[in-house]
Amino acid sequence: MISLEVNGEQRELDVEPDMPLLWVLRDELGLTGTKFGCGIAACGACTVQVDGQAMRSCVTPVSMVEGQSVRTIEALSESAEKLSAIQEAWITHQVPQCGYCQSGMLMAASALLAENPDPSDADIDAAMTNVCRCGTYGRVRAAIHDAAKAQG
């Protein structure tokens, strides 16, 4: 049995310890907002937060996060009625095009803002290593700056 907290709820899971966290979230817990992209931790579509840090879940064995707190895109906003500052900024700047990578992008951006509430362009570039095939990186940067101001 693997024990971890997912989106504020303690979970006990009867899964193999080397099962990737991504598949635990999607297949065992039904949290399908976290996406499979490349399977080698390069694209970031699978990004979640583990104890507040952005982490690629496709290559992370669930045993590696045992006893820790995992947060997925489903828990990014406080409620269904109120979006987080980063989600609001994403909409304002029309960041998503196809939208596939966006859950991972949002989780990486919110982890960045939690650690650095006023990031520079260089900070954003260093932290946002997610790949967006639609190429909305300029919009991502603008949205992060706006979210930082809104949270400020």
Task: Write a brief structural summary.
With 152 residues, the protein is of the alpha+beta class. The protein has two domains: 2-75, Beta-grasp domain (Ubiquitin-like (UB roll)), CATH 3.10.20; 85-151, [2Fe-2S]-binding domain (DNA polymerase, domain 1, Orthogonal Bundle). The protein has five helices and five strands.
Query: In percent terms, what proportion of residues is strand?
Result: 5-15%
Task: Round the Cα radius of gyration to an integer and report it.
Answer: 15 Å
For this structure, what is the CATH homologous superfamily of the largest domain?
Beta-grasp domain
Order of helices and strands: EEHEEEHHHH
Side by side, the strands of the main sheet go: 2-1-5-3-4
Molecular structure report:
With 152 residues, this protein is α+β, with helices and mostly antiparallel strands. The chain folds into two domains: 2-75, Beta-grasp domain (Ubiquitin-like (UB roll), Roll); 85-151, [2Fe-2S]-binding domain (DNA polymerase, domain 1). Helices cover 34% and strands 14% of the residues. The protein has helices spanning 21-28, 85-92, 102-115, 121-127, 137-151, and strands at 2-6, 9-13, 47-50, 53-56, 69-71. Strands 2-1-5-3-4 form a five-stranded mixed sheet, covered by helices on one side. A hairpin with a 2-residue loop joins strand 3 and strand 4.
